[in-house]
Specification:
The structure is a single chain. This protein is of the alpha/beta class and 461 residues long. Helix content is 33%, strand content 17%. It has helices at residues 16-19, 32-39, 49-52, 60-68, 72-80, 86-92, 114-128, 150-161, 178-181, 190-202, 219-224, 256-264, 290-301, 321-329, 397-400, 431-434, 439-459, and strands spanning 142-146, 165-169, 206-208, 230-233, 239-240, 253-255, 282-286, 305-310, 333-336, 338-346, 349-360, 371-382, 385-388, 392-393, 426-428. The N and C termini lie far apart (54 Å).
């Protein structure tokens, strides 16, 4: 009989007043008993609506039933059929807007904790299974993947499983893309990312770091000199946007990308790090997405009093509910319905942030309420650090050095639903096509592109 308890098992976690002073993982994960109890809440619905919300179509009821049977490795193998990064996705995917939003148990109570169960299964496998995956038989064909983030990793994994000779080219010195530089250790330990990368290498995938496509090597050279038959572009959207307000050239102003890269990739939070970062006393972060939450919570761990400024209300905040709740628990202040209009400086450094107070208009035809200024209402927040987290766009380098690649007015590469770009043999996916989105959507795009690349190469035979 299913467990008909209405609420999901809480996720064990560090105490907020302890974790906001360290970079260790906040969520501690389910025990076996908790995982089985949560899995028993699944009704194993006939139509499996949860799968409709999964971008990579994991067989969710099947893996959950394996947990009920205490076959944790069997559950992992079910997930592994569809997902290249289960330990990552179990931690950072917005399940509440995807699979869990379709869960029948969520109609009258809380949805089954699908993401928490995925994390449990992946962590159990990583802890208990040491055998390397079997390397597939080579099929004699070569593919290149640009970018070692979620879309590139997923694409490379699926191609390698089909027997392709795959090389990933990564611009940074560490594989993982946004998983390595963008998501803090307290949400996604880098050992988890490395474990997933090691699994990819065990399949035969080669990873070349410190290679900037468009400078070190061009896409044309990948075809003409290196002999690749198809190329996947999964270079992400790492070019930050700024607000273009007075004071953005002051010392103490960061893009969220730079701030998080220094902390996550360069380990600037550690004493004696070779990559310095000034430890702010009062930090203001503008933005309301997950990246803004990551930057704010990182600044808090560096010892700062932190304020998040967002021009809409809490109801419109785009970040995951869990991340917002964690930020509030950790003592981060939310100053909503405010929009920065000037960064005030003193002797070349940030001193304060002036904000225009906003209010929400009446809903438009789509139901969206726009923020509009409240005349004469200006607020000032004392600060020595200002972090901009209002979005990113793809770096134009690959597009500008490659003939035949079209991009839209946001700088995103134009590709069809299977990742085929306007240049023959070149496929693309993830944030390079959609702009900044989620890990699981990028993975889904990488998997679709891998299937299309295989079809393209085989059609040439």
């Amino acid at each position: 009989m299913p467990n008909m308890r209405m609420d999901k098992n809480p996720m064990p976690s560090q105490d907020p007043n302890v974790r906001n002073k360290n970079f260790e993982e906040v969520a501690l994960g389910y025990t076996e008993e908790q995982a089985i109890d949560e899995a028993e809440r699944c009704l194993n619905c006939k139509n499996h609506p949860c799968m409709d919300g999964c971008p990579v179509q994991i067989s969710i009821p099947e893996f959950i039933q394996k947990i009920v049977e205490k076959d944790f490795e069997g559950a992992y193998q079910v997930i592994n059929r569809s997902s290249s990064l289960p330990a990552v996705c179990g931690r950072v995917c917005p399940q509440e807007r995807q699979c869990e939003s379709k869960c029948v148990r969520g109609i009258k109570g809380e949805a089954v904790g699908i993401g928490r169960l995925e994390r449990f299964v992946a962590d159990w496998h990583n802890k208990n299974v040491t055998a390397a995956p079997e390397k597939p038989q080579p099929n004699g064909h070569k593919c290149a993947v640009i970018g070692c983030g979620p879309s590139g990793l997923a694409c490379a994994s699926d191609l390698a499983k089909k027997g392709y000779d795959v090389t990933i080219y990564e611009a940074l010195h560490t594989p993982g893309g946004v998983l390595a530089y963008g998501i803090p250790e307290f949400r996604l330990p880098k050992a988890i990312v490395q474990k997933e990368v090691d699994g990819l290498k065990a399949l035969g995938v080669k990873i070349e770091t410190n290679v900037v496509i468009g400078k070190s090597i061009t896409v044309d050279e990948l075809f003409d000199e290196f002999g690749y038959e198809s190329v996947f572009i999964g270079s992400g959207a790492g070019l930050p946007r700024f607000m273009n307000i007075p004071g953005e050239n002051l010392n103490g102003v960061y893009s969220a990308n730079e701030f998080l890269t220094r902390i996550n990739l360069m380990k600037a939070f550690k004493e004696g790090s070779k990559t310095p970062i000034e430890r702010p006393k009062k930090a203001v972060i503008v933005g309301g997405g997950n990246v803004a939450m990551d930057a704010a919570r990182s600044a808090k761990r560096l010892g700062a009093d932190v304020t998040i400024v967002y021009r809409r209300s809490m109801e419109e905040l785009p970040a995951r509910k869990e991340e917002v709740e964690h930020a509030i628990e950790e003592g981060i202040i939310f100053k909503l319905l405010n929009n920065p209009i000037e960064i005030v400086g003193e002797e070349g450094r940030v001193k304060a942030v002036r904000c225009q107070e906003m209010e929400l208009s009446e809903p438009d035809e789509s139901g969206r309420r726009s923020p509009v200024p409240v005349e004469g209402k200006i607020n000032e927040i004392e600060a020595d650090c200002f972090i901009v987290s209002i979005g990113t766009s793809p770096n134009p380098l690959i597009k500008s050095t490659t003939d035949g690649l079209d991009a839209n007015n946001r700088g995103c590469l134009v590709a069809d639903e299977n990742g085929a770009t306007t240049r023959e043999g070149v496929f693309a996916g993830g944030d390079a096509v959609t702009g900044a989105a989620t890990v699981i959507l990028a993975m889904g795009a990488g998997k679709k592109a891998a299937a299309a690349m295989d079809e393209y190469i085989q059609s040439k035979q």
